[in-house]
Write the structure tokens for this entry.
Amino acid sequence: MKSETASMKGKVCLVTGASSGIGKEIAKGLARTGATAVMVGRNRQRAEAARDEIIGETANDSVELMISDFSSFDAVRRLAADFKGRHARLDVLVNNAGTIPAKLELSADGYEMQFAVNHLAYFLLTNLLLGTIKASAPARIVNTASGVHTRGRIDFDNLRGENRYGFLRAYGRSKLANILFTYELAGRLEGTGVTVNCFTPGMTKTDLGRYLRGVSGFFFRRMGRSPGEGAETAIYLATSPDVAGVTGKYFADCREARSSEASHDAATAKRLWEFSEKATGLS
Ligand SMILES: NC(=O)c1ccc[n+]([C@@H]2O[C@H](COP(=O)([O-])OP(=O)(O)OC[C@H]3O[C@@H](n4cnc5c(N)ncnc54)[C@H](OP(=O)(O)O)[C@@H]3O)[C@@H](O)[C@H]2O)c1
């Protein structure tokens, strides 16, 4: 159920993981509203091709590209500093970049890769840009989570690859972290005019399973909805007047949905926040 999107002319939106899949379609949808769309990609060639496609399809020339690899906190810090050097405002931040390595990988800072890219980078980038976002209020933050969060558990003693790795368990953990982060941040942003919500795109045909073999990789490549359909809820949350003032919620198909019991555990959300603050050097 898609609702009308408002004109976003004069607004600045930043989308991570915008070089392909759902993120590219989110950036395209935001560019269509007339906003300045700042795309963040990792691979310059892929990201430039995506930017050219978006400019071609939307006729909006205000589509910018920034390159950052979220497997390093230093790179996230450089991205935030570069963005603030270019823009005085940020009306919409969409944290969307994601990865699923088949085997255990560690980030440059020594964290399990999915936890680092899919959660810690969202956490660090958001916090580094929060001053700019608050100064642009009313403003919105949207986090791409997943229905697979129900498979996750925040095992604080296994965030650096200490125990056996399972790609689905690690993915579920990172996506549960997205929701816990959203709910905790919403509480912290009360009264600021900044809202934060998360959503599941539903099973979507993208490159997310590119490192997975067999059935799992096949599922991501072939099963589910189109990336454009997967992006609809994010564009709705970023732009629709229907959800102005709505915060701290989980959405599916442009409707509020119920996330797992574990995602509502306020003590875990607070502990994850404090852990993430220390890990990223924010405290
Ligand atoms: N597809 C689904 O069924 C599904 C379902 C639920 C949730 N999601 C979520 O949707 C989001 C987007 O995924 P997608 O399905 O659209 O997959 P995708 O096509 O693989 O897109 C992932 C994006 O993240 C970027 N990325 C990956 N690792 C990165 C890193 N280390 N640093 C910076 N950027 C990085 C990729 O950049 P490169 O182009 O350089 O690789 C790409 O732009 C993810 O958060 C995922 O968890 C997807």
User: Anything to note?
Assistant: The chain is about 45% helix and 15% strand. Residues 156 and 211 are 25 Å apart (CA to CA).
